[in-house]
Amino acid sequence: MHKSFFKYLTVGESEKDWGLYVTSVGYSKVEPNDRYPNQEHPQSHKLTWDRGRILNDYYIVFISKGKGVFGSASMQAVNIELGTCFFLLPGAWHRYKPDPASGWEEYWIGFNGYYAAQLMQKNFSSDNLLIKTGMNNDMLGLFHNLIDVSATATIGYTQQMAGITLQLLGMVHTLSVFKEPGHDPVGQLISKAKFILQESYENQVDMEAIARQLPMGYSSFRKAFKNITGESPNQYHLNLRINRAKQLLIKTALNISEIADQTGFESVYYFSKIFKKKTGVAPNVFRKQLYDKA
After folding, report:
1. Looking at the structure, do residues 154 and 208 belong to the same domain, yes or no?
2. Distance, CA of 270 to CA of 248 (rounded, Å)
3. What backbone torsions phi and psi does residue 27 show, to the nearest 5 degrees?
4. pTM for this one?
5. In this structure, are 226 and 148 located in the same domain?
6. Are residues 76 and 18 part of one domain?
7. What does the pLDDT look like over 96-128, one tens digit per residue?
8. Residue 113: left if φ>0, alpha if ψ -120 to 50, beta else—which one?
9. Cα 115 from chain centroid?
10. CA 280 → CA 33, 110, 264, 287, distances in Å?
11. How many structural domains does the chain have?
């Protein structure tokens, strides 16, 4: 996954006129027994468990790994685990922290605006700030997109981020209202495996360790994964990494060596070889073709 990242955005009149604008976006990986927060944020966003905090914007926080505790002015502190979203409301006291034994990984997006306020007030209740989304690959993808767009900061990126935030709100609302009972336990385990793989495109992955984590026997896991996705776990993970490399070639100015490193390939040579095998062209040619079409 991304290295820890956050950005606070300057909001001008053009962003406010849009009706929904982003004020902050980020991702944080907190290891077991790390101090929390483990990043230096502006004074207005300082958070301690004892004092809590009040912010001026709406926030969605998504816990993709680990577990912890969340509390607010409208609810007592409760335990939360991976696959949980929670909302922070403007002007409302809150506090949260990871469990020291597990740590956690969190994504967040801060947003506001007259249209955002209307959506939140009509569709989300202050009595239901916690929403169990599960290990949702689409939600993870939207947060990845938000971070990529924010980091690249091309012309019009603030409006792009507003659009992705709207998608995210729609997804969270759907998951909060139309909860699927999930009668397929094997399908749920494979969804969990896909989520883990999507979080691991920067690294080589031990598939047998993932099978044990589910838990499933490796041969049963591999067979079920291929039946559901049409690909073996290793091919699925490789395709995730190649698709991630494409996005970095399209959206960033990273060189080929940096992209190989960020997608978990042991060398530029091996990355270029696999990329060409999968796409038909070398990474530098892929990028050049994009510029030629522009």
Report:
1. no
2. 17
3. -145, 140
4. 0.76
5. no
6. yes
7. 999 999 999 999 999 999 999 999 998 887 777
8. left
9. 24
10. 46, 40, 20, 13
11. 2
